[in-house]
DNA sequence: GAGTTTGAAACT
DNA sequence: CAGTTTCAAACTC
């Protein structure tokens, strides 16, 4: 098996993988786990090769800094032809003029139809905003900002990309040194209001000097991306140029630089150094991602030109860590005309005690195999054992012809990168708290129990066929607790559910470093879910007692989520029981390959075509109770159901009655709420007005508050109560009683406000 | 809140 | 694949 051996693991620097799921499409088909058509485009790959002399480069460290740009290009180029470039704007180049302005140019045209443009960086168009701020070796802060107009939705492919999407901001900052600039993000975006819905992500990377490096090696990089499509009405137009802001920094050595990001096409020298890339599972939130690439340049580098890697792809999260040989003179001025695209593949390099997720460079993965699961929209990467030789590279052909795995490309041991990626619950903006890194092995830090899912490498072959059935966003994560490289399968919900802000630690080392490997540590604060998702789903806590929450009986497990705030007993559905959980998942998939697929399919016509994929089997409930999965999902039973005495069909009078009652109840609640709100509002409004003329004993009598407005509001309440009684066909006596009760409540409310008024504003009253 | 009912999942 | 058991949610009192 082509899994990284324990020995290799031990050699590898810490890696992390951001397993955050990203939605590639606004509306994934309900059957999204099913094998997609062969023609379905693969997730875009992101090239990561911009180069900033003192800051970042996206190509993985190569074996030698002297490597020619051509060779580097080859490496940096995405390994396979499976790259899929959507019609996304590209950044063709990044230039840094003498004035220290960094210009990132965006390719004017969409990629070729074949989607294979291995040398081009891709920017996701959907309303993404990107801020890249960093500090060069000399401490110069650099920031890039893409105005919200930059990424207005381009021509979509019918997937609804133009829909409003949650915005997220990810920042990459250097550990230990403050990076300013983030606060100005909203200003840079040009629309502070839109930031309210944005989520913030921060990635910190600290790069330590290698032994061979003479100059200061600490590199700080901040990459901030704000994603927000909301409010974007003009999909096509893009701001031609975005001006950046210089981030002030405590380091006085050099003045801040202003980086300008433009869309104009231009060629730019690219860094030839190798880089490590991490692609993150492309699910859930199309607008999430940020790739961070950190490159250190030799202080002696003659050139100042910088290539700034911007790796932003649709629905893709990419983490790129680039490390170039510190002494390499070749780095400066080297150019890489072709941007690389990176497959949204995730892989994990397991480390002995890996508490973190490992990310393997994808675009130019020296030691990674890309795994393609037939029919899966997700891409996986397999770590391969690094040897002096190289394995036969199978042409990375594309798409789904190869059902399972692509063979590994020649493995380069240097420039291995490990990153521990902190995962943050998608619900809220999380601030990353820098944490000192003491060792290569970084632990995903969470306030709560770290949660991970590990799939032992040995199980992979068995599980692979079922990968397509995993919940959306499933990613491979590093095995835990052993020296063996392994895979962890993390259904997206698991990833996104991790309750705590986590850190991403990036550690890259070069085998060429004579002594201490260069370590780049970065921390990522990731928001896993889109706003819509974050706001949508408060799952009911489960109450499992016997299943250990590892059976499909458990709704949490069945939905690919960790148990969180549940009432379950002896729960194994958490990261503390990864192996058990993994086995359970495998068992479920063995029994039913589509066990984790949504049961409710969605037809092309919308909800009207929704139906249960398997049909119910009810016998006694008439399919009109929540026991029935169809009814519970608010859909009709269909011909595939095997229910008996079904009443859950369109013309069913019972069903209509139920629906009517349910609707009436809902309306009633709404009306009552509205009426009460109105009444309270009227009373409150009255209190703010002039003191009533009639007073008694120094205070207002309650009836003095019964103004016309209050009376009207009260009548509204009574009328609505009457309507409800009528709707529910209550007897007249009952209706009268209900109305009188409502009237009593109104009066009490008035009296209450009156009393409060006398108490609260004795002066005015 | 305890007990019952129900149907999906799991098992044989 | 069918029958049975297990399980947890839905439901009732």
Automatic annotation (TrEMBL):
Top-level taxonomic group: Eukaryota
Listed Pfam families: TCR
Domain CRC residues, every copy: 538-651
Key words, A-Z: Nucleus
InterPro entries in UniProt: CRC, Lin-54_fam, Tesmin/TSO1-like_CXC
Coiled-coil regions listed in the entry: none
Subcellular locations according to the entry: Nucleus
Family statement: Belongs to the lin-54 family.
GO aspect biological process, one term: regulation of DNA-templated transcription
Record SMART domains: CXC
Organismal lineage: Eukaryota, Metazoa, Chordata, Craniata, Vertebrata
Name of this chain's protein: Lin-54 DREAM MuvB core complex component
Primary location group: nucleus
GO cellular component: nucleus
């Amino acid at each position: 098996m082509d899994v990284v051996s324990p020995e290799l693991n031990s050699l590898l620097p810490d890696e992390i993988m951001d397993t955050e799921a990203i939605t590639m499409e606004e509306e994934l088909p309900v059957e999204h786990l099913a094998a997609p058509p062969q023609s379905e485009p693969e997730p875009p790959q992101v090239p990561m090769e911009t180069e900033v002399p003192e800051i970042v480069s996206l190509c993985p460290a190569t074996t030698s800094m002297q490597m020619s740009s051509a060779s580097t290009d080859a490496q940096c180029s995405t390994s396979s032809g499976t790259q899929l470039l959507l019609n996304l704007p590209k950044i063709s180049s990044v230039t840094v003029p003498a004035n220290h302005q960094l210009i990132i140019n965006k390719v004017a045209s969409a990629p070729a139809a074949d989607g294979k443009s291995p040398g081009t960086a891709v920017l996701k168009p959907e309303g993404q905003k990107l801020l890249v701020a960093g500090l060069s070796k000399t401490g110069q802060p650099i920031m890039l900002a893409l105005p919200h107009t930059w990424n207005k939705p381009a021509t979509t492919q019918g997937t609804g990309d133009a829909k409003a999407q949650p915005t997220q901001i990810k920042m990459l900052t250097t550990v230990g040194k403050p990076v300013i600039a983030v606060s100005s993000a909203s200003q840079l975006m040009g629309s502070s209001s839109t930031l309210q819905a944005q989520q913030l992500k921060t990635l910190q990377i600290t790069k330590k000097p290698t032994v061979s490096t003479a100059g200061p090696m600490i590199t700080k990089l901040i990459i901030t991306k704000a994603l927000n499509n909301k409010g974007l009405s003009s999909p096509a137009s893009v701001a031609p140029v975005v001006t950046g802001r210089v981030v002030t920094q405590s380091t006085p050595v050099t003045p801040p630089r202003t980086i300008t990001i433009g869309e104009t096409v231009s060629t730019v020298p690219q860094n030839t150094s190798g880089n490590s890339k991490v692609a993150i599972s492309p699910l859930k939130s199309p607008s999430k991602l940020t790739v961070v690439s950190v490159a250190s340049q030799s202080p002696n580098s003659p050139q100042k030109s910088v290539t700034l890697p911007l790796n932003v792809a649709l629905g893709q999260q990419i983490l790129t860590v680039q490390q170039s040989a510190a002494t390499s003179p070749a780095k400066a001025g080297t150019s890489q005309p072709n941007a690389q695209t990176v497959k949204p593949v995730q892989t994990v390099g397991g480390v002995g005690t890996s508490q973190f997720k490992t990310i393997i460079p994808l675009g130019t993965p020296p030691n990674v195999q890309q795994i393609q699961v037939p029919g899966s929209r997700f891409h996986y990467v397999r770590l391969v054992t690094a040897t002096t030789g190289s394995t036969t590279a199978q042409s990375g052909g594309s798409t789904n012809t190869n059902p399972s795995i692509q063979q590994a490309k020649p493995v380069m041991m240097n420039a291995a990168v490990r990153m521990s990626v902190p995962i943050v619950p998608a619900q809220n903006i999380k601030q990353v708290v820098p944490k000192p890194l003491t060792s290569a092995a970084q632990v995903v830090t969470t306030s709560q129990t770290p949660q991970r899912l590990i799939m032992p490498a040995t199980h992979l072959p068995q599980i692979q066929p079922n990968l397509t059935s995993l919940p959306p966003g499933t990613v491979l994560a590093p095995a835990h607790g052993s020296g063996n490289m392994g895979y962890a399968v993390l259904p997206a919900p698991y990833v996104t559910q991790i309750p705590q802000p986590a850190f991403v630690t990036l550690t890259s080392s070069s085998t060429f470093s004579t002594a201490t490997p260069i370590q780049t540590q970065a921390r990522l604060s990731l928001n896993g879910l889109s706003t819509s998702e974050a706001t949508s789903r408060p799952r009911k806590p489960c109450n499992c007692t016997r299943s250990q929450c590892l059976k499909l009986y458990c709704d949490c497990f069945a939905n690919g989520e960790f148990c969180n705030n549940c009432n379950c007993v002896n729960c194994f559905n958490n990261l503390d029981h990864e192996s058990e959980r993994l086995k359970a998942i495998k068992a479920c998939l063995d029994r039913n390959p589509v066990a984790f697929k949504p049961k409710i399919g969605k037809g092309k016509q919308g909800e009207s075509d929704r139906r249960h994929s398997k049909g119910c089997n009810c016998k006694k409930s008439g399919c009109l109770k929540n026991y029935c999965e169809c009814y519970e999902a608010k859909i009709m039973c269909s011909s595939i159901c095997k229910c008996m005495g079904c009443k859950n069909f369109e013309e069913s009078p019972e069903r209509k009655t139920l629906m009517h009652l349910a609707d009436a109840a809902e309306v009633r609640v709404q009306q009552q709420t509205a009426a009460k709100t109105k009444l309270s509002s009227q009373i409150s409004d009255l209190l703010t007005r002039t003191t009533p003329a009639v007073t008694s004993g120094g205070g207002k009598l309650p009836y003095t508050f019964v103004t016309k407005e209050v009376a009207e509001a009260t009548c509204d309440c009574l009328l609505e109560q009457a309507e409800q009684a009528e709707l529910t066909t209550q007897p007249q006596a009952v209706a009268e009683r209900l109305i009188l009760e409502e009237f009593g409540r109104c009066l009490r409310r008035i009296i209450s406000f009156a009393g409060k008024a006398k108490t609260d504003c004795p002066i005015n009253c």
